[in-house]
UniProtKB/TrEMBL annotation:
InterPro entries: EMI_domain. PROSITE patterns: EMI. It comes from Panagrolaimus davidi. This is EMI domain-containing protein. Residues 1-22 form the signal peptide. It comes from the Eukaryota. The keyword Aminoacyl-tRNA synthetase does not apply. Pfam families: EMI. Keywords: Disulfide bond, Signal. The keyword Signal applies. Residues 22-99 form the EMI domain.
Length: 101
């Protein structure tokens, strides 16, 4: 199900972000939120055993160690992009800006 949602998002994004061709095209800078996957090192405590002289524990005593675990976190980032649109008095048809009648 998640793959279908990603496909739909990409399809809608590519349709809404289509480039305009020809004259009478204006641009503006827009802040958009994009989601980026970042690598995060997380400190974890590991409990292992090592040989010891304690026969009540089966000669294996617990030892605590700290280590790092790599995890990935999706975080929002705001990026400035340039959006194209038809200038005032024009409308979009088939990727071109046509004059309103």
């Amino acid at each position: 199900m998640e793959l279908g949602g990603i496909f739909l998002f990409i399809l809608l994004f590519s349709i809404s972000n289509s480039e305009l061709n020809g004259d009478n095209i204006c641009t503006k800078e827009v802040d958009k939120t994009v989601y980026v996957t970042k690598k995060v090192n997380q400190i974890v405590q590991l409990v292992t055993t090592q040989a010891c002289p304690d026969f009540t524990r089966g000669f294996r005593c617990p030892v605590k160690k700290t280590g790092t675990k790599v995890t990935y976190k999706t975080v929002p980032e705001i990026k400035r992009v340039i959006e194209t649109f038809c200038c005032e008095g024009y409308y979009e048809i088939d990727g071109q800006c046509k004059r309103k009648f």
